[in-house]
Amino acid sequence: METTTTARRRCFYSSMSSLLMATICVTLMIYPSHAQLNTTFYATTCPNVSTIVRNVVQQTLQTDARIGASLIRLHFHDCFVNGCDGSILLDNSGSIQSEKDAGPNTNSTRGFDVVDNIKTAVENSCPAVVSCADILALAAEASVSLSGGPSWNVLLGRRDSLSANQGGANTSIPSPFEGLSNITSKFSVVGLNTTDLVALSGAHTFGRAQCRLFSNRLYNFSGTNNPDPTMNTSYLTSLRQICPQNGSGFSIANLDPTTPDGFDNNYFSNLQNNQGLLQSDQELFSTTGAATVTVVNSFASSQAAFFQSFAQSMINMGNISPLTGSSGEVRSDCKKVNGS
């Protein structure tokens, strides 16, 4: 890339001949080295990357109905820690404490093997070109659209981090046990607003959650020795059968009891019926006076409105502090930095 000084010289000589060229050159001087994400980043270097990713996700969905939700969760948990940089994919090493071992991820996040399969397929077609961070973003879109949800043009051009942030993963990722104000604050810190919060929570329209993440709502909510009063009583009964009081905390329940594997707006109707599985889900609707209530009602009444907002919020989330240009690297193996 030419230096700022060179750009100035070019601008001086070209501005006399063309106002348009002068405008372009001023742009070069102001932004000499800052790359931006865009939808055509791999148009010449790996034009089939979206198809490659989609094919692997589609094949995996045939034997693992949960994988779509698992892949979008990886992208979510990645972006909330130091931005969308693929740091969640790094294994432990001499210099890295893996985010996989952070509280929100350990014995919980899954789909890493599928990411590796996607990476292998992409490398076979376009070696050393596509970042693992971009693969997560593409896999999230494919997971949603293949499950009946919206499609969107994924912005690309992220590069992969050289380190992980286990401590950040412990503190930055929203927890299912947190109140709405805390979760709203965590979204705000990364530049996401109330609509983003509600829309992205709508990803819980498919996938599963372990009993340990909500069993407190079934038996001893907030130390009361009673269930969460906002929970639908028949829903409570069915969940207690899946998650007995002294049972394994690792049994799983559908996040959406109505259409567990389809991406639709039933999640929001469930909240209106007090059938949100996680505390963080139900509080979007049951917190008196919260700004989220109006958004929940809007999405419950219009799937089109939800789909449109969800696609935009995924783009917004994918824009959280990406590494671009010469920052970071393109990992050849998503589990480790190059040369390690």
From TrEMBL:
Residues annotated as site: Transition state stabilizer: 73
PANTHER family named among the record's database cross-references: PEROXIDASE 53, PEROXIDASE 72-RELATED
Binding site for Ca(2+) 2: 205, 256, 259, 264
Group of enzyme by EC: oxidoreductase
Catalytic residues as annotated in Swiss-Prot or TrEMBL: 77 (proton acceptor)
GO biological process, one term: hydrogen peroxide catabolic process
Cofactor(s) demanded: Ca(2+); heme b
Domain Plant heme peroxidase family profile, first and last residues per copy: 36-338
Residues engaged in binding heme b: 204
Family: Belongs to the peroxidase family. Classical plant (class III) peroxidase subfamily.
Gene Ontology cellular-component terms listed: extracellular region
Residues annotated for substrate binding in this entry: 174
Xref: SUPFAM superfamilies: Heme-dependent peroxidases
Gene3D superfamilies, A to Z: 1.10.520.10, Peroxidase, domain 2 (1.10.420.10)
Purpose: Removal of H(2)O(2), oxidation of toxic reductants, biosynthesis and degradation of lignin, suberization, auxin catabolism, response to environmental stresses such as wounding, pathogen attack and oxidative stress. These functions might be dependent on each isozyme/isoform in each plant tissue.
Binding site for Ca(2+) 1: 78, 81, 83, 85, 87, 99
Spans traversing the lipid bilayer: none
Intrachain disulfide bonds: 46-126, 79-84, 132-334, 211-243
Binding note for cofactor: Binds 2 calcium ions per subunit. Binds 1 heme b (iron(II)-protoporphyrin IX) group per subunit.
Source organism (scientific name): Dipteronia dyeriana
Reactions catalysed according to its record: 2 a phenolic donor + H2O2 = 2 a phenolic radical donor + 2 H2O
Name listed for the protein in its UniProt record: Peroxidase
